[in-house]
Amino acid sequence: MGIVTKVLPALAAAMLALGAALPASAQGLIRDAEIEQILRDYSDPIFEAAGLKPSDVNIYIVQDDSLNAFVAAGQNMFLHTGLIMEARTPEELKGVIAHETGHIAGGHNVTREAAMGAYGGTSLITMGLGALALFAGAPDAALALFGSAPQFGMMTLFKFTRIDESSADQYGLSFLEKTGQSADGLVAFMENFRYQELMSESRRDPYFRTHPISSDRIAALTRRAKDVTAKSSPQSPEAIEELAMMKAKLVGFIGPANRVASRYPTTDQSLPAKYARAIAAYRAVDIKAALTQTDDLITIEPDNAYFYELKGQILFESGRATESVQWHRKSVELAPHHALLKVNLARSLIGTKDENDLAEAEGLLMDAIQLEHDNSFAWNQLAVVYGRMDRIGDADLATAEEAYYRGDMARAYVFARRAVDKLDPNTPNGRRADDIAALADPRIQPRGGRQGFSGAALAPHP
Fold it and tell me: Mean pLDDT over residues 328-352, rounded?
């Protein structure tokens, strides 16, 4: 599991698009092959039922304990780790995903932008009235109006979003029905947090600030949900186990050590409990215990790619890169279509310091980039490989790509210009470097923002 330690441009842009402040606890996005695959297993049938191409919908996992999920800036879905941890059943998580998919299918990003415009306009009008009251010599009235401005604006916003929320509920129910899944989870999720509507704005979970809930909405949802559920199939044991494994992994990696001990005591011999304790031992730098417990996991499920990944990670990060290679290689053999697993193996090969391993590392990183062109860490590692190979122009270009996908336009421009000076302008890489230099040119960048850009991946050296 890797945690990006800064808020990525996609997250920042999405939060700003919603008019929301970035919470202090949301320091970045989590990338984890296993969790992402499980969420895809849950989501892709729903996306297809909505008439969406699953590969066009991006799912981002936000490291934040608060209960929240949202869509923004097109087909981008953001799920907080707090939401995954609070879901009691796969149906609840799938229900929220179906609801959020309803926002995408219904084009609600457009209407929300209009709603935010109305919200801002109402607040400005209210603030203007406050100023008029102040000038009229009524400071108490002015202060009251100033203080109520956000509430007046939010009331206007809710006039728009309550319609969207009810619409997304019905879309979500349709998608669950098409995929033969129970709607009880979505209803249970809403019922469980019905009390949120009685709370002040500041005390509500973020999800219910942007997804206003009401008794009427729950009643409408419940009426149709009964028919959907009556035609559904029960959740598979695999889906139930997957949710338990996601929770165990999140608790192990991002939760405090005492949380692992309290939720997964040694008396609990379930697979998720053993998983969480192995991860906790690794985080506590008890490498011997972590390896022993991970070996136990591998014995139980010898075809689980993510157990091999964990063992490789433990070895690599404890300075045993050469030993880690075989375990990362096994994870790639078992799950060959995961970009993150390929990057892990490439990083271990780079870490062996054996120049003979560099060509294989390059190939793995190129494969990963074909799967995820915007994987900035893959570009970073490719730059390391090319630097070791003394292919400095290609290394500069890979660094420019890394910076571009991190949203660092100044750095992207500098390294793209360096690459332009070193690479043949008539080659794909030379043209690519020139494209990035043009797009990242500080003279045309709007306040340092990233413009849309896609193109062929960095070409492998012949």
Answer: 97
CB-based contact 63:81 (threshold 8 Å): yes
Supply angle C-alpha 136, 139, 140, rounded to 5: 130
Q: Provide the angle, in degrees to the nearest 10, between the axes of the packed helices 90-105 and 237-254.
A: 90
Fold (CATH) for 238-440: 1.25.40
Q: What is the pLDDT of residue 445?
A: 63
State mean pLDDT over 250-264: 92
The span from the CA of 256 to the CA of 125, in Å, is: 46
Where does residue 137 rank: exposed (0-12), middle (13-18), buried (19+ CB within 10 A)?
A: exposed
What proportion of the chain, given as a percentage, has pLDDT over 70? 74
- Tell me the domain boundaries of the chain: 2-230, 238-440
Least confident of 129-143, 187-201, 432-446: 129-143
Residues in Cβ contact with 156 at an 8 Å cutoff, skipping those fewer than 6 apart: 115, 118, 119, 122
Give me Rg for the CA atoms of the chain.
25
Q: Are 32 and 284 in contact (CB under 8 A)?
A: no
| pLDDT for position 63 | 92
Exposed/middle/buried for residue 312 (C-beta within 10 Å: 0-12, 13-18, 19+): buried
Helices and strands: H and E segment counts in the chain: 21, 5
Is it true that 2-230 and 238-440 share their CATH fold? Answer: no
One DSSP character per residue, 106-145 reads: TTHHHHHHHHHHHHHHHHHHHHHHHHHHHHTT-HHHHHHH
Instruction: Note the pLDDT of residue 107.
Output: 83
pLDDT score for 165: 83
Q: How confident is the model over 19-60, as pLDDT tens digits?
A: 444 444 444 889 999 999 999 999 999 999 999 999 999 999
Whether residue 380 contacts residue 349, with contact meaning beta carbons closer than 8 Å, is answered with no
Phi, psi of 59 (to 5 degrees): -110, 125
- CATH number attached to the domain at 2-230: 3.30.2010.10
